[in-house]
Amino acid sequence: MKTAQNRWVFIIDAAMFGLMLAIAFYMFSRTGYSGLKTVVVIGIGIGVLVYILRNLVSVERVAKPETQRNRIAKLILMDEEGESIKEWYIEGETSLLIGKTTARSEADIDLAGTDYASLVSVEHAVLNRVNSDWFVEDVDSGNGTGLRPANESVTKKLESGEPYRIYTGDLLYIANTRLLVK
């Protein structure tokens, strides 16, 4: 809905600028009317100034929900078609181990029953919360950890031991297993 609203605002803005240009062209193609020409130029200047100020204010409104964007509540295990298989609610936690539960080790996010469980290390990655921000860190896993930010198409392989900030909408790749950050 936000995109459709932005599209209509853009169409209306373009139509108004077109109308202002048509009026200016008409006025300046006629001889005389110097006082009216001055009024038209001032009106167009005020219109452009209002447009710029309105867009600056709306950019600030869009920038404020950063805290909402990073309010991570859960991880969702996704299948090959992008359907949800399992969810882990992590809100309120501070540190979580992603891996496989064994007789000697327990993973908070247990991927032992997934299709690619054989590629997942017992201690594969760690999620840590610092204040309201979440970070993922590969813990020297055998098949690596990847991160694909929400609005990007490229997955980045994480360096072992380096924390990477994550946001809602990001995809974590634990070996070939996909976890959606929500």
Task: Give your account of this protein's structure.
With 182 residues, the protein is an alpha+beta fold. The protein folds into 2 domains: 2-64; 71-181, Sandwich (Tumour Suppressor Smad4), CATH 2.60.200. 34% of the residues lie in helices and 27% in strands. It contains 3 helices and 11 strands, in the order H-H-H-E-E-E-E-E-E-E-E-E-E-E. The protein has a 6-stranded antiparallel beta sheet, with no helix packed on it. Helix 1 runs antiparallel to helix 2. The two termini are 20 Å apart. The relative contact order is 0.11.
CATH class of the largest domain: Mainly Beta
Q: Which strand order spans the largest sheet, edge to edge or round the barrel?
A: 2-1-11-10-7-8
Topology, number of strands = 11
Could you say what the CATH topology of the largest domain is called? Tumour Suppressor Smad4
CATH architectural grouping of the largest domain: Sandwich
Order of helices and strands: HHHEEEEEEEEEEE
Q: Could you tell me how far the N terminus lies from the C terminus, measured between alpha carbons in angstroms?
A: 20 Å
**Could you estimate the helical fraction of the residues in percent?**
25-40%
Mean pLDDT: 86
The amount of beta strand, in percent, is 25-35%
- Which word captures the global form? rod-shaped
- Number of helical stretches of at least 4 residues: 3
Determine Rg (CA atoms, Å): 26 Å
